[in-house]
Design a protein that fits this description.
The complex is a heterodimer of chains A (about 120) and B (about 190).
Chain A (H helix, E strand, L loop, with lengths): L10 H15 L8 H8 L7 H30 L5 H31 L3
Helix pairs in contact in A: 3-4
Chain B lengths: L1 H4 L1 H11 L3 H14 L2 H23 L2 H17 L10 H20 L22 H12 L3 H12 L4 H8 L3 H19 L2
Helix pairs in contact in B: 3-4, 4-5, 4-6, 5-6, 6-9, 7-10, 8-10
The chains are: A mainly alpha (about 120), B mainly alpha (about 190).
Chain lengths: ~120, ~190
């Protein structure tokens, strides 16, 4: 074996000692739960910088969507008739609002549903 | 069935599940960049057996060895960014484990004597015919001091080259050789080789 470089010329005793030690000390108590227990003991997951930037950008976009949406609703209500164009824009705002909200809250929902890894 | 009969095939099959250095670096990179717990779990699966064996043979107590191994892996995880990748992950892990053992030993202020020899490594699931050998080996190991025992375990049981042992224990190569020679002579006398 490459690692087993003999320390002296008496190779037989060296190998003999190695085999005696290995046969007596190679065992270790089995613990199938070792990895599981260890992973549960690790410190909580830290938030990555990229995730923080994503949440910040989404929050800004959400605020802008709400402001623009409210302004559009107020202007559309003052108009004489509700057209298909208005409905499409409402739908677009709602979709945008829902997506951004989900994007911000998903890490929290996932954390509650699946627990901490 | 053929694999079970042929030791070479069995060794090859075992190697197929062992991590290469590249795979190891990939897993570590995943842990560092994405805090990937599954990747770390894979590393733990790979190295927990040799590490626990080393600590078990050093401390002689399964529960203590388990606790020290857990602490070692947690410390490794929290300081994974400082791992340079020059040495193998196993070497780095054993360095942490050795320090953990030294701390534990200092805190518990354990003095090893011949009377405690029988407590040292009463290896698991051993055939009854080997019981005497185990007792002898335990007694022989107990005649060594902690440094000698550590070196013997790393060299003879974990098959580590002296250079690696040197980086784990922070001892010069020449000193390790002297310690090993002395330990070998003492053990040989005890085992009457």
């Amino acid at each position: 074996m490459k690692n087993a470089e003999p320390l002296h010329t008496n190779d037989l005793s060296e190998n003999e000692l190695r085999s005696i030690l290995k046969s007596a000390l190679s065992g270790v108590p089995k613990n199938p739960w070792f990895t599981y227990t260890l992973l549960r003991r690790l410190p909580p997951k830290r938030q990555r910088i990229a995730a923080r930037i994503e949440i910040l950008t989404s929050t800004i976009a959400l605020v802008i969507t709400i402001v623009c949406g409210v302004r559009f609703v107020s202007t559309s209500l003052s108009s004489p008739a509700l057209t298909v164009r208005h409905i499409l824009i409402y739908a677009m705002y709602l979709t945008l609002f829902g997506t951004l909200l989900l994007n911000i809250t998903w890490p929290i929902i996932a954390g509650i549903r699946f627990g901490k890894e | 069935m053929r694999l079970k009969n042929n030791p070479n095939d069995r060794a090859l099959a075992l190697n197929a599940f062992m991590l290469t250095k590249l795979e190891e670096i990939t897993l570590i990179a995943k842990c560092v960049t994405a805090d990937d717990r599954h990747a770390f779990g894979r590393l733990v699966d790979e190295y927990n057996t040799p590490l626990r064996r080393f600590l078990f043979n050093l401390t002689g107590d399964a529960q203590t060895a388990e606790d020290l191994a857990q602490e070692t892996f947690i410390k490794a995880y929290t300081s994974l960014r400082s791992f340079k990748g020059i040495s193998r992950f196993k070497t780095w892990l054993f360095t942490i484990a050795y320090r953990e053992f030294a701390n534990w030993h200092r805190n518990n202020d354990i003095t090893c004597d011949i009377e405690s020899a029988t407590d040292i490594p009463s290896t698991i699931s051993s055939p009854e015919t080997d019981a005497e050998t185990h007792y002898d080996v335990s007694a022989a190991l107990a005649t060594l001091n902690d440094t000698e025992r550590t070196l013997v375990l790393l060299f003879y049981i974990e098959d580590m080259p002296i250079k690696k042992i040197s980086s784990i224990t922070a001892m010069p190569v020449g000193t390790i050789k002297v310690y090993l020679k002395r330990a070998r002579e003492r053990m040989a006398k005890s085992l009457q080789i």
